[in-house]
TrEMBL record:
InterPro entries: ADH-like_C, ADH-like_N, ADH_Zn_CS, ER, GroES-like_sf, NAD(P)-bd_dom_sf. Residues 10-359 form the Enoyl reductase (ER) domain. This is Zinc-binding dehydrogenase. The lineage of its organism: Bacteria, Bacillati, Actinomycetota, Actinomycetes, Pseudonocardiales. It comes from the Bacteria. Keywords: Metal-binding, NAD, Oxidoreductase, Zinc. GO terms for cellular component: cytosol. PROSITE patterns: ADH_ZINC (PS00059).
Length: 362
């Protein structure tokens, strides 16, 4: 089968290979035929080493498809079932899972970093985040697969696997945004747009989209932002809509020290700053002891939207079914696997009209 392979950490392009096979199916695993895979900035971060990844490895961590085969211990799925794959696969038994923090379960994360999911030309090859959705098929733990109804489009399902649950989950789970709140979102990519939609869905009345790419402002307003500005204009907008007090909730969806600091500064005293962006180890942010004490702003990290995929995939799809989330509209471009490098390159030079690119598999 075909897949897009990262040969070495630091490579700017993936190699398209046709001599790929999946690892042998374990008793608790599922083999999935990929139908749609999303292209995410986290894939770039895996390639350049900003996020943990193993090489050689098949990139891609956002996808949907059909079950092809199930291991002998899997009794609740069958070939033909339509599924979303998730890089968070709760084991159900560890302390994180028992504490209702399934998104912090690292059992299958460690397995994914230590156990190859593929073979390329006979060489053991890993899957990014334990997945590797830039392949025609992949094997994943049963816990990393969520069955969905057959009427959910594969494109919608793929986005729900990462971008949408991360953004919406940050609003609903991590921050618990209250109706009538004021919200600012720094970064208007797929996750940022999802956070904007989540804020609208829960009843936030002021939603300010912040992005240096002016072309993204109209898009953000289409998905629910009441205002849009560049970072340089945020203080003026805050003055206009909050009287200069700052926002109740500010979501940082970039993963840089400077934007985390900006998000904190834009948050009202006693408000909440939510760090959603996946930053590199080199990104640092500094606060004084006095301001942390005096301002009493809460800083909440949000890993994967504090999501339990067993619960929240269905929640997000219910919001989509009732018209509270526009997920079809987030698909900006469709490409084939052969064009994956062009899709990744587009992320280096953001297009104002680009929310999410997806790879479709015939």
């Amino acid at each position: 089968m075909k897949a897009a392979v990262l040969n070495e950490i630091g490579d700017r392009e993936l190699q398209l290979r046709a001599d790929v096979t999946t690892a042998e199916l374990a008793p608790d695993q599922v083999r999935v035929r990929t139908r749609v895979a999303g292209i995410c900035h986290s894939d770039l971060a895996a390639m350049d080493g900003s996020l943990p990844a193993m090489a050689p490895g098949v990139i891609g961590h956002e996808g949907s498809g059909d079950v092809v085969e199930v291991g002998e211990q899997v009794a609740d799925l069958a070939p033909g079932d339509r599924v979303v794959v998730s890089f968070v696969a709760p084991c159900g038994h560890c302390k994180a899972c028992a504490s209702n923090q399934a998104y912090l379960c690292d059992v299958h994360v460690i397995e994914g970093l230590s156990t190859p999911r593929f073979s390329v030309g006979g060489e053991p090859t890993f899957g990014f985040a334990g997945l590797g959705t830039f392949a025609e098929e992949l094997v994943v733990p049963r816990a990393g697969v969520v069955k969905i109804e057959d009427d959910v489009p594969y494109e919608v399902a793929a986005l729900v696997g990462c971008a949408v649950v991360t953004g919406v989950g940050a609003v609903i789970n991590t921050a618990a945004v209250r109706p009538g709140s004021s919200v600012a979102v720094l970064g208007c990519g797929g996750v940022g747009i999802s956070a904007i939609q989540g804020a609208r869905a829960v009843g936030a009345t002021t939603i300010v989209a912040v992005d240096p790419v002016v072309g993204k402002h109209e898009l953000a307003e289409r998905f629910g932002a009441t205002h849009a500005t560049t970072p340089d204009g945020l203080a003026d907008v805050s003055q206009d809509v909050t009287g200069g007090a700052g926002f109740d909730y500010v979501f940082e969806v970039v993963g840089r020290g400077s934007t985390i600091r900006a998000a904190y500064d834009a948050t009202r005293r006693g408000g909440t700053t939510v760090v959603v962006g996946a930053g590199s180890p080199e990104e640092k942010v500094e606060f004084s002891a006095q301001e942390l004490f005096m301002m009493e702003r809460k800083i909440l990290p949000s890993f994967y939207g504090s999501v339990d995929p067993r619960r929240d995939v269905d929640l997000v799809l219910s919001l989509w079914r009732t018209g509270r989330l526009d997920l079809e509209g987030m698909v900006s471009k469709r490409i084939g696997l052969a064009d994956v490098n062009a899709g990744l390159e587009a992320l280096h030079s953001p297009d104002g009209g680009l929310v999410r690119q997806v790879i479709t598999f015939d």
